[in-house]
Design a protein that fits this description.
Largest sheet: 5 strands, mixed
Number of helices: 19
Bound molecules: pyridoxal-5'-phosphate
Number of strands: 16
Radius of gyration: 22 Å
Helix content: 40-55%
Shape: globular
Protein backbone atom coordinates (compact mmCIF):
# COMPACT_ATOMS: atom_id res chain seq x y z
CA UNK A 1 0.00 0.00 0.00
CA UNK A 2 1.95 3.05 -1.21
CA UNK A 3 1.02 5.70 1.34
CA UNK A 4 3.69 8.32 1.84
CA UNK A 5 3.72 9.01 5.52
CA UNK A 6 4.86 12.60 5.06
CA UNK A 7 1.74 13.06 2.98
CA UNK A 8 -0.29 11.22 5.60
CA UNK A 9 0.94 13.49 8.37
CA UNK A 10 -0.01 16.52 6.28
CA UNK A 11 -3.44 15.11 5.60
CA UNK A 12 -4.00 14.24 9.24
CA UNK A 13 -2.74 17.64 10.37
CA UNK A 14 -4.94 19.40 7.85
CA UNK A 15 -7.89 17.39 9.12
CA UNK A 16 -7.17 18.17 12.74
CA UNK A 17 -6.37 21.82 12.13
CA UNK A 18 -9.81 22.19 10.65
CA UNK A 19 -11.43 20.58 13.66
CA UNK A 20 -9.38 22.03 16.47
CA UNK A 21 -12.33 23.82 17.98
CA UNK A 22 -14.05 20.54 18.78
CA UNK A 23 -10.97 18.69 20.00
CA UNK A 24 -8.49 19.38 22.73
CA UNK A 25 -5.16 20.34 21.14
CA UNK A 26 -2.55 17.79 20.09
CA UNK A 27 0.33 17.22 22.43
CA UNK A 28 3.05 18.16 19.91
CA UNK A 29 0.89 18.96 16.94
CA UNK A 30 1.51 15.45 15.55
CA UNK A 31 0.33 12.17 17.03
CA UNK A 32 3.14 10.05 18.47
CA UNK A 33 2.43 7.01 16.29
CA UNK A 34 3.02 9.06 13.15
CA UNK A 35 6.18 10.60 14.48
CA UNK A 36 7.43 7.08 15.04
CA UNK A 37 6.59 5.86 11.53
CA UNK A 38 7.94 9.05 9.98
CA UNK A 39 11.35 8.45 11.55
CA UNK A 40 11.55 4.96 10.03
CA UNK A 41 13.35 4.29 6.73
CA UNK A 42 10.13 2.94 5.22
CA UNK A 43 7.47 5.26 3.94
CA UNK A 44 5.16 2.57 2.63
CA UNK A 45 2.33 0.87 4.52
CA UNK A 46 2.37 -2.68 3.19
CA UNK A 47 -0.21 -5.45 3.37
CA UNK A 48 0.95 -7.13 6.62
CA UNK A 49 0.48 -10.68 5.32
CA UNK A 50 1.77 -13.00 2.65
CA UNK A 51 -0.53 -15.15 0.58
CA UNK A 52 -0.74 -18.95 0.87
CA UNK A 53 -4.03 -19.73 -0.85
CA UNK A 54 -5.20 -17.87 -3.93
CA UNK A 55 -8.47 -17.67 -5.84
CA UNK A 56 -8.68 -16.80 -9.53
CA UNK A 57 -9.93 -13.32 -10.34
CA UNK A 58 -12.47 -13.43 -13.13
CA UNK A 59 -11.55 -10.73 -15.62
CA UNK A 60 -14.28 -10.38 -18.24
CA UNK A 61 -14.26 -7.80 -21.01
CA UNK A 62 -16.76 -4.95 -21.23
CA UNK A 63 -18.36 -6.75 -24.19
CA UNK A 64 -18.82 -9.87 -22.03
CA UNK A 65 -20.23 -7.89 -19.11
CA UNK A 66 -22.79 -5.96 -21.17
CA UNK A 67 -25.26 -8.85 -21.76
CA UNK A 68 -24.75 -10.02 -18.15
CA UNK A 69 -25.83 -6.62 -16.82
CA UNK A 70 -28.76 -6.43 -19.26
CA UNK A 71 -29.95 -9.88 -18.14
CA UNK A 72 -29.62 -8.79 -14.50
CA UNK A 73 -31.91 -5.79 -15.19
CA UNK A 74 -29.06 -3.37 -14.35
CA UNK A 75 -29.21 -4.60 -10.74
CA UNK A 76 -25.82 -5.70 -9.40
CA UNK A 77 -27.44 -7.86 -6.71
CA UNK A 78 -28.67 -10.04 -9.60
CA UNK A 79 -25.21 -10.51 -11.16
CA UNK A 80 -23.50 -13.83 -10.35
CA UNK A 81 -20.33 -13.49 -8.25
CA UNK A 82 -18.35 -15.40 -10.89
CA UNK A 83 -19.00 -12.50 -13.30
CA UNK A 84 -17.54 -9.91 -10.89
CA UNK A 85 -13.83 -9.03 -10.74
CA UNK A 86 -13.70 -6.82 -7.63
CA UNK A 87 -16.54 -7.53 -5.21
CA UNK A 88 -17.06 -4.47 -3.01
CA UNK A 89 -20.72 -5.15 -2.27
CA UNK A 90 -19.99 -5.62 1.44
CA UNK A 91 -17.22 -6.01 4.01
CA UNK A 92 -19.47 -8.40 5.95
CA UNK A 93 -18.53 -12.08 6.03
CA UNK A 94 -16.10 -11.63 3.12
CA UNK A 95 -12.83 -11.69 5.06
CA UNK A 96 -9.88 -13.89 4.09
CA UNK A 97 -9.02 -16.05 7.08
CA UNK A 98 -5.46 -16.55 8.31
CA UNK A 99 -3.43 -19.76 8.47
CA UNK A 100 -3.97 -19.73 12.25
CA UNK A 101 -7.73 -19.52 11.82
CA UNK A 102 -7.74 -22.44 9.37
CA UNK A 103 -5.51 -24.40 11.74
CA UNK A 104 -7.92 -23.72 14.62
CA UNK A 105 -10.79 -25.02 12.48
CA UNK A 106 -9.08 -28.40 12.28
CA UNK A 107 -8.90 -28.86 16.06
CA UNK A 108 -12.52 -27.86 16.71
CA UNK A 109 -14.52 -29.94 19.18
CA UNK A 110 -17.94 -30.45 17.56
CA UNK A 111 -19.62 -31.80 20.73
CA UNK A 112 -23.22 -30.69 21.09
CA UNK A 113 -22.79 -29.59 24.70
CA UNK A 114 -19.77 -28.30 26.62
CA UNK A 115 -17.48 -28.11 23.58
CA UNK A 116 -13.90 -27.07 24.36
CA UNK A 117 -14.09 -24.76 21.34
CA UNK A 118 -16.80 -22.80 23.12
CA UNK A 119 -14.67 -22.57 26.27
CA UNK A 120 -11.84 -21.16 24.17
CA UNK A 121 -14.17 -18.66 22.48
CA UNK A 122 -15.75 -17.66 25.79
CA UNK A 123 -12.33 -17.01 27.32
CA UNK A 124 -11.24 -14.80 24.38
CA UNK A 125 -14.46 -12.75 24.48
CA UNK A 126 -14.26 -12.42 28.28
CA UNK A 127 -10.64 -11.24 28.08
CA UNK A 128 -11.46 -8.76 25.35
CA UNK A 129 -14.65 -7.29 26.81
CA UNK A 130 -14.42 -7.98 30.53
CA UNK A 131 -18.04 -9.28 30.37
CA UNK A 132 -18.88 -12.50 32.19
CA UNK A 133 -21.81 -13.90 30.21
CA UNK A 134 -21.11 -14.87 26.59
CA UNK A 135 -23.92 -16.01 24.29
CA UNK A 136 -22.89 -17.12 20.78
CA UNK A 137 -25.23 -16.45 17.84
CA UNK A 138 -25.02 -17.26 14.16
CA UNK A 139 -24.59 -13.59 13.19
CA UNK A 140 -25.20 -10.04 14.39
CA UNK A 141 -28.89 -9.79 13.61
CA UNK A 142 -29.61 -12.97 15.58
CA UNK A 143 -28.07 -11.26 18.63
CA UNK A 144 -30.27 -8.21 17.93
CA UNK A 145 -33.39 -10.34 17.59
CA UNK A 146 -32.75 -12.23 20.85
CA UNK A 147 -32.27 -8.98 22.79
CA UNK A 148 -35.27 -7.28 21.17
CA UNK A 149 -37.66 -10.20 21.63
CA UNK A 150 -36.75 -10.71 25.29
CA UNK A 151 -36.05 -7.19 26.62
CA UNK A 152 -37.82 -4.68 24.38
CA UNK A 153 -41.59 -4.06 24.69
CA UNK A 154 -44.00 -2.11 22.45
CA UNK A 155 -43.73 1.65 22.97
CA UNK A 156 -40.14 1.51 24.28
CA UNK A 157 -37.45 3.73 22.77
CA UNK A 158 -33.78 2.92 22.13
CA UNK A 159 -31.34 5.77 21.49
CA UNK A 160 -28.06 5.39 19.58
CA UNK A 161 -25.85 7.43 17.23
CA UNK A 162 -27.35 5.65 14.19
CA UNK A 163 -28.95 2.24 14.38
CA UNK A 164 -27.86 -0.12 11.62
CA UNK A 165 -30.77 -1.28 9.36
CA UNK A 166 -31.15 -4.72 10.94
CA UNK A 167 -30.96 -3.30 14.48
CA UNK A 168 -33.65 -0.76 13.61
CA UNK A 169 -35.78 -3.45 11.94
CA UNK A 170 -35.54 -5.75 14.98
CA UNK A 171 -36.47 -2.90 17.35
CA UNK A 172 -39.42 -1.83 15.18
CA UNK A 173 -40.53 -5.45 14.71
CA UNK A 174 -41.36 -5.65 18.43
CA UNK A 175 -43.22 -2.31 18.33
CA UNK A 176 -40.48 -0.09 19.78
CA UNK A 177 -38.75 2.98 18.36
CA UNK A 178 -35.10 3.25 17.22
CA UNK A 179 -33.88 6.83 17.83
CA UNK A 180 -30.83 8.27 16.01
CA UNK A 181 -28.99 11.02 17.92
CA UNK A 182 -25.75 11.36 15.93
CA UNK A 183 -24.11 14.83 15.91
CA UNK A 184 -25.14 17.12 13.02
CA UNK A 185 -21.69 16.74 11.38
CA UNK A 186 -22.42 13.01 11.12
CA UNK A 187 -25.22 13.77 8.67
CA UNK A 188 -23.12 16.08 6.49
CA UNK A 189 -21.03 14.14 3.90
CA UNK A 190 -18.68 17.10 3.41
CA UNK A 191 -17.87 17.64 7.10
CA UNK A 192 -14.31 16.54 8.00
CA UNK A 193 -15.09 16.13 11.70
CA UNK A 194 -12.80 13.25 12.85
CA UNK A 195 -15.50 11.58 14.99
CA UNK A 196 -18.69 11.77 12.98
CA UNK A 197 -20.21 8.83 14.90
CA UNK A 198 -20.35 10.83 18.13
CA UNK A 199 -23.71 11.08 19.85
CA UNK A 200 -25.07 14.59 20.40
CA UNK A 201 -24.77 14.73 24.20
CA UNK A 202 -27.28 17.54 24.69
CA UNK A 203 -29.89 15.69 22.66
CA UNK A 204 -29.13 12.45 24.52
CA UNK A 205 -29.43 14.15 27.90
CA UNK A 206 -32.83 15.68 27.12
CA UNK A 207 -34.01 12.46 25.47
CA UNK A 208 -33.05 10.40 28.53
CA UNK A 209 -34.54 12.96 30.93
CA UNK A 210 -37.87 12.83 29.09
CA UNK A 211 -38.03 9.06 28.40
CA UNK A 212 -35.85 7.20 30.95
CA UNK A 213 -38.63 4.87 32.08
CA UNK A 214 -39.27 3.71 28.50
CA UNK A 215 -35.61 3.07 27.59
CA UNK A 216 -34.69 -0.61 28.21
CA UNK A 217 -31.09 0.12 27.15
CA UNK A 218 -29.14 2.75 25.22
CA UNK A 219 -26.70 2.00 22.42
CA UNK A 220 -23.84 3.31 20.31
CA UNK A 221 -22.72 1.75 16.99
CA UNK A 222 -18.93 1.46 16.53
CA UNK A 223 -18.04 2.37 13.84
CA UNK A 224 -21.19 3.93 12.43
CA UNK A 225 -21.97 1.91 9.28
CA UNK A 226 -25.03 4.01 8.40
CA UNK A 227 -22.96 7.19 8.64
CA UNK A 228 -20.11 5.96 6.41
CA UNK A 229 -17.97 3.79 8.74
CA UNK A 230 -17.10 6.82 10.88
CA UNK A 231 -15.73 6.40 14.43
CA UNK A 232 -16.88 7.78 17.80
CA UNK A 233 -14.28 9.34 20.12
CA UNK A 234 -13.36 7.83 23.46
CA UNK A 235 -14.35 11.11 25.12
CA UNK A 236 -17.81 10.83 23.58
CA UNK A 237 -18.22 7.14 24.53
CA UNK A 238 -17.20 8.02 28.11
CA UNK A 239 -19.78 10.83 28.26
CA UNK A 240 -22.50 8.64 26.71
CA UNK A 241 -21.76 5.95 29.33
CA UNK A 242 -21.95 8.52 32.12
CA UNK A 243 -25.29 9.83 30.84
CA UNK A 244 -26.85 6.38 30.55
CA UNK A 245 -25.58 5.63 34.07
CA UNK A 246 -27.03 8.87 35.44
CA UNK A 247 -30.48 7.82 34.20
CA UNK A 248 -30.09 4.16 35.26
CA UNK A 249 -30.13 2.93 31.64
CA UNK A 250 -28.02 -0.14 30.70
CA UNK A 251 -25.47 0.66 27.94
CA UNK A 252 -25.08 -1.85 25.09
CA UNK A 253 -22.48 -1.36 22.33
CA UNK A 254 -22.98 -2.54 18.75
CA UNK A 255 -19.35 -3.61 18.49
CA UNK A 256 -19.15 -4.92 14.88
CA UNK A 257 -16.16 -2.73 14.04
CA UNK A 258 -14.75 -2.10 17.53
CA UNK A 259 -11.12 -2.60 16.42
CA UNK A 260 -11.34 -0.12 13.53
CA UNK A 261 -12.97 2.39 15.92
CA UNK A 262 -10.23 1.82 18.51
CA UNK A 263 -7.48 2.47 15.97
CA UNK A 264 -9.21 5.64 14.75
CA UNK A 265 -9.15 6.82 18.39
CA UNK A 266 -5.43 6.10 18.58
CA UNK A 267 -4.83 8.00 15.33
CA UNK A 268 -7.14 10.94 15.81
CA UNK A 269 -7.87 11.62 19.47
CA UNK A 270 -5.68 13.86 21.58
CA UNK A 271 -3.83 11.96 24.31
CA UNK A 272 -4.53 8.48 22.86
CA UNK A 273 -1.64 7.99 20.41
CA UNK A 274 0.61 6.24 22.98
CA UNK A 275 -2.00 3.56 23.78
CA UNK A 276 -2.46 0.26 22.00
CA UNK A 277 -5.67 -0.38 20.08
CA UNK A 278 -6.23 -3.33 22.43
CA UNK A 279 -5.97 -1.11 25.49
CA UNK A 280 -8.40 1.39 23.96
CA UNK A 281 -10.82 -1.44 23.08
CA UNK A 282 -10.66 -2.72 26.69
CA UNK A 283 -11.57 0.73 27.96
CA UNK A 284 -14.47 1.08 25.51
CA UNK A 285 -15.97 -2.22 26.64
CA UNK A 286 -15.34 -1.35 30.31
CA UNK A 287 -17.63 1.67 29.91
CA UNK A 288 -20.67 -0.40 28.93
CA UNK A 289 -22.86 -3.13 30.39
CA UNK A 290 -22.62 -5.37 27.36
CA UNK A 291 -22.33 -5.60 23.61
CA UNK A 292 -23.76 -7.29 20.57
CA UNK A 293 -21.44 -8.18 17.75
CA UNK A 294 -21.43 -9.46 14.21
CA UNK A 295 -18.19 -11.40 13.86
CA UNK A 296 -18.45 -11.02 10.08
CA UNK A 297 -16.69 -7.67 10.40
CA UNK A 298 -13.96 -7.27 13.05
CA UNK A 299 -14.26 -10.92 14.09
CA UNK A 300 -12.48 -11.69 10.78
CA UNK A 301 -14.80 -14.61 10.07
CA UNK A 302 -17.35 -15.50 7.41
CA UNK A 303 -20.13 -16.24 9.92
CA UNK A 304 -20.73 -15.69 13.64
CA UNK A 305 -21.88 -13.25 16.29
CA UNK A 306 -22.44 -12.95 20.02
CA UNK A 307 -24.05 -11.15 22.92
CA UNK A 308 -21.79 -10.43 25.90
CA UNK A 309 -23.16 -9.09 29.18
CA UNK A 310 -21.65 -7.92 32.46
CA UNK A 311 -24.67 -8.91 34.59
CA UNK A 312 -26.77 -12.05 34.76
CA UNK A 313 -30.18 -10.31 34.76
CA UNK A 314 -31.14 -10.97 31.11
CA UNK A 315 -29.11 -14.14 30.61
CA UNK A 316 -31.65 -16.82 31.51
CA UNK A 317 -34.38 -15.49 29.20
CA UNK A 318 -31.87 -14.87 26.42
CA UNK A 319 -30.52 -18.42 26.70
CA UNK A 320 -34.03 -19.88 26.67
CA UNK A 321 -34.86 -18.14 23.39
CA UNK A 322 -31.39 -19.06 22.09
CA UNK A 323 -32.11 -22.74 22.68
CA UNK A 324 -35.49 -22.39 20.99
CA UNK A 325 -34.26 -20.66 17.84
CA UNK A 326 -30.46 -20.78 17.51
CA UNK A 327 -29.11 -23.76 19.41
CA UNK A 328 -27.58 -24.92 22.69
CA UNK A 329 -25.76 -22.13 24.64
CA UNK A 330 -22.33 -23.59 23.86
CA UNK A 331 -22.73 -23.26 20.09
CA UNK A 332 -25.63 -20.85 19.42
CA UNK A 333 -26.25 -21.74 15.78
CA UNK A 334 -22.57 -22.06 14.86
CA UNK A 335 -20.35 -25.05 14.24
CA UNK A 336 -17.53 -25.32 16.79
CA UNK A 337 -15.08 -24.69 13.93
CA UNK A 338 -16.71 -21.26 13.44
CA UNK A 339 -16.18 -20.49 17.14
CA UNK A 340 -12.52 -21.52 16.86
CA UNK A 341 -11.89 -19.25 13.85
CA UNK A 342 -13.81 -16.42 15.53
CA UNK A 343 -11.70 -16.69 18.71
CA UNK A 344 -8.49 -16.38 16.68
CA UNK A 345 -9.95 -13.55 14.55
CA UNK A 346 -10.88 -11.45 17.59
CA UNK A 347 -7.27 -11.56 18.66
CA UNK A 348 -5.71 -10.99 15.21
CA UNK A 349 -7.91 -7.98 14.46
CA UNK A 350 -6.17 -5.94 17.16
CA UNK A 351 -2.76 -6.32 15.49
CA UNK A 352 -1.84 -2.69 14.84
CA UNK A 353 0.02 -3.40 11.61
CA UNK A 354 -3.20 -4.93 10.32
CA UNK A 355 -5.30 -1.98 11.54
CA UNK A 356 -2.88 0.59 10.12
CA UNK A 357 -3.06 -1.16 6.74
CA UNK A 358 -6.83 -1.61 6.96
CA UNK A 359 -7.55 2.08 7.48
CA UNK A 360 -4.90 3.03 4.90
CA UNK A 361 -6.87 1.08 2.24
CA UNK A 362 -9.96 3.30 2.45
CA UNK A 363 -7.88 6.45 2.83
CA UNK A 364 -5.73 5.53 -0.19
CA UNK A 365 -8.65 4.92 -2.51
CA UNK A 366 -10.68 7.92 -1.29
CA UNK A 367 -7.77 10.34 -1.65
CA UNK A 368 -6.91 9.16 -5.13
CA UNK A 369 -10.52 9.37 -6.24
CA UNK A 370 -10.74 12.89 -4.80
CA UNK A 371 -7.57 13.83 -6.70
CA UNK A 372 -9.32 12.71 -9.89
CA UNK A 373 -12.26 14.98 -9.09
CA UNK A 374 -14.50 12.17 -7.82
CA UNK A 375 -16.08 13.40 -4.56
CA UNK A 376 -16.43 11.01 -1.62
CA UNK A 377 -17.94 11.22 1.87
CA UNK A 378 -15.38 12.94 4.14
CA UNK A 379 -13.23 11.96 5.93
CA UNK A 380 -12.63 8.39 4.68
CA UNK A 381 -14.20 5.93 7.12
CA UNK A 382 -13.03 2.47 8.17
CA UNK A 383 -14.55 -0.14 5.92
CA UNK A 384 -15.86 1.64 2.84
CA UNK A 385 -15.53 4.55 0.44
CA UNK A 386 -18.76 6.33 -0.50
CA UNK A 387 -18.76 8.15 -3.86
CA UNK A 388 -21.08 11.16 -4.01
CA UNK A 389 -22.80 10.38 -7.32
CA UNK A 390 -25.08 13.44 -7.11
CA UNK A 391 -22.08 15.79 -7.24
CA UNK A 392 -20.12 13.65 -9.69
CA UNK A 393 -22.97 13.23 -12.20
CA UNK A 394 -25.07 16.41 -11.76
CA UNK A 395 -26.59 15.95 -15.24
CA UNK A 396 -28.46 12.81 -14.10
CA UNK A 397 -31.69 13.70 -12.27
CA UNK A 398 -32.38 11.82 -8.99
CA UNK A 399 -35.42 10.12 -10.59
CA UNK A 400 -32.94 8.56 -13.06
CA UNK A 401 -30.80 7.17 -10.26
CA UNK A 402 -27.28 8.68 -10.63
CA UNK A 403 -25.90 6.27 -8.01
CA UNK A 404 -27.24 3.20 -9.77
CA UNK A 405 -26.04 4.54 -13.15
CA UNK A 406 -22.53 5.00 -11.73
CA UNK A 407 -22.55 1.59 -10.02
CA UNK A 408 -23.53 -0.04 -13.35
CA UNK A 409 -20.79 1.82 -15.22
CA UNK A 410 -18.19 0.75 -12.62
CA UNK A 411 -19.25 -2.81 -13.27
CA UNK A 412 -19.15 -2.50 -17.07
CA UNK A 413 -15.83 -0.66 -17.15
CA UNK A 414 -13.94 -2.40 -14.36
CA UNK A 415 -15.87 -5.40 -13.13
CA UNK A 416 -16.39 -3.64 -9.77
CA UNK A 417 -19.51 -4.58 -7.83
CA UNK A 418 -20.61 -1.75 -5.52
CA UNK A 419 -23.87 -0.84 -3.82
CA UNK A 420 -26.11 2.15 -4.51
CA UNK A 421 -27.22 3.95 -1.36
CA UNK A 422 -29.51 6.58 -2.79
CA UNK A 423 -32.89 6.88 -4.47
CA UNK A 424 -33.04 3.20 -5.46
CA UNK A 425 -32.70 2.23 -1.79
CA UNK A 426 -34.52 5.13 -0.13
CA UNK A 427 -36.47 7.03 -2.84
CA UNK A 428 -40.28 6.97 -2.53
CA UNK A 429 -43.36 7.88 -4.51
CA UNK A 430 -46.04 9.81 -2.60
CA UNK A 431 -49.83 9.32 -2.84
CA UNK A 432 -50.01 11.79 -5.76
CA UNK A 433 -47.41 9.79 -7.72
CA UNK A 434 -44.72 12.40 -7.06
CA UNK A 435 -41.13 11.07 -6.75
CA UNK A 436 -39.36 11.89 -3.45
CA UNK A 437 -35.61 11.36 -3.89
CA UNK A 438 -33.18 10.26 -1.22
CA UNK A 439 -31.21 13.12 0.39
CA UNK A 440 -27.93 11.57 -0.77
CA UNK A 441 -27.04 9.61 -3.92
CA UNK A 442 -24.07 7.49 -2.84
CA UNK A 443 -22.22 4.51 -4.28
CA UNK A 444 -20.60 2.42 -1.56
CA UNK A 445 -17.42 0.45 -2.18
CA UNK A 446 -17.03 -1.76 0.93
CA UNK A 447 -13.75 -3.60 1.29
CA UNK A 448 -13.45 -7.24 2.29
CA UNK A 449 -10.69 -7.65 4.88
CA UNK A 450 -7.28 -8.96 3.69
CA UNK A 451 -8.64 -9.85 0.23
CA UNK A 452 -7.47 -7.29 -2.34
CA UNK A 453 -3.99 -5.79 -2.76
CA UNK A 454 -2.70 -2.38 -3.74
CA UNK A 455 -2.28 -3.34 -7.40
CA UNK A 456 -6.00 -4.13 -7.53
CA UNK A 457 -6.77 -0.64 -6.21
CA UNK A 458 -4.27 0.98 -8.60
CA UNK A 459 -5.91 -0.84 -11.50
CA UNK A 460 -9.32 0.45 -10.44
CA UNK A 461 -7.98 4.00 -10.03
CA UNK A 462 -6.58 3.91 -13.60
CA UNK A 463 -10.00 2.92 -14.89
CA UNK A 464 -11.65 5.71 -12.88
CA UNK A 465 -9.27 8.21 -14.45
CA UNK A 466 -10.59 7.19 -17.87
CA UNK A 467 -14.19 7.22 -16.63
CA UNK A 468 -13.85 10.85 -15.46
CA UNK A 469 -13.07 11.93 -19.05
CA UNK A 470 -16.38 10.58 -20.33
CA UNK A 471 -18.66 11.12 -17.34
CA UNK A 472 -20.92 13.55 -19.24
CA UNK A 473 -21.81 10.71 -21.58
CA UNK A 474 -23.19 8.55 -18.76
CA UNK A 475 -26.99 8.24 -18.82
CA UNK A 476 -29.50 7.52 -16.09
CA UNK A 477 -31.83 4.53 -15.73
CA UNK A 478 -35.55 3.98 -15.61
CA UNK A 479 -37.29 1.47 -13.36
CA UNK A 480 -38.99 -1.38 -15.20
CA UNK A 481 -39.83 -3.47 -12.13
CA UNK A 482 -40.46 -1.74 -8.79
CA UNK A 483 -41.12 -4.21 -5.94
CA UNK A 484 -42.80 -2.71 -2.88
CA UNK A 485 -40.39 -4.05 -0.24
CA UNK A 486 -36.57 -3.60 -0.14
CA UNK A 487 -36.57 -2.80 -3.82
CA UNK A 488 -32.79 -2.46 -4.21
CA UNK A 489 -32.43 -6.26 -3.98
CA UNK A 490 -34.78 -7.15 -6.83
CA UNK A 491 -35.69 -4.01 -8.83
CA UNK A 492 -34.97 -4.02 -12.56
CA UNK A 493 -33.93 -1.11 -14.77
CA UNK A 494 -33.28 -0.10 -18.37
CA UNK A 495 -30.81 2.56 -19.50
CA UNK A 496 -32.28 5.83 -20.80
CA UNK A 497 -31.36 6.45 -24.41
C1 LIG B 1 -23.28 -1.89 12.47
C2 LIG B 1 -23.92 -3.21 12.15
N1 LIG B 1 -24.68 -3.82 13.07
C3 LIG B 1 -25.26 -5.00 12.84
C4 LIG B 1 -25.09 -5.66 11.62
C5 LIG B 1 -25.77 -6.99 11.39
O1 LIG B 1 -24.83 -8.02 11.37
P1 LIG B 1 -25.07 -9.37 10.53
O2 LIG B 1 -24.94 -9.02 9.08
O3 LIG B 1 -24.00 -10.31 11.00
O4 LIG B 1 -26.42 -9.87 10.86
C6 LIG B 1 -24.29 -5.06 10.63
C7 LIG B 1 -24.11 -5.73 9.32
O5 LIG B 1 -23.64 -5.16 8.36
C8 LIG B 1 -23.68 -3.80 10.90
O6 LIG B 1 -22.90 -3.19 10.01
Amino acid sequence: MIIHIGELVNIQNALFNRTKEVLSPWENGTPACYTQVYMSAHRTIIEPFKIKVVEPLNCLTRAEREPILTNAGYNLFLVAAKDVTFDFLTDSGTTAMSANQWAAIMVADESYAGSSSFSKFEKVVRNLTGYEFIIPTHQGRAAERLICETIVKPGMKIPSNNHFDTTRANIEFVGAEAIDLVIDEGRDPTSTHPFKANIDLEKLESFCAANAKDIPFGMITLTNNTGGGQPASLANIRSVAALYKKYGIPFIIDACRFAENSFFIKMREAGQAHRTARDIAHEIFSLADGCIMSGKKDGLVNIGGFIALRNEAWVTTLRSLLILTEGFPTYGGLAARDLEAFAVGLDEVLDERYLEYRLAVTRYLAERLNALGIPTVQPPGGHAVYIDAKSFLPHIEPQHFPGQALACELYLAEGVRSCEIGSVMFGKTDSTGCFIPSKLELVRLAFPRRVYTQSHFDYIIEGMQELVTRKEALRGLKLTYDPTLLRHFTARFEPLT
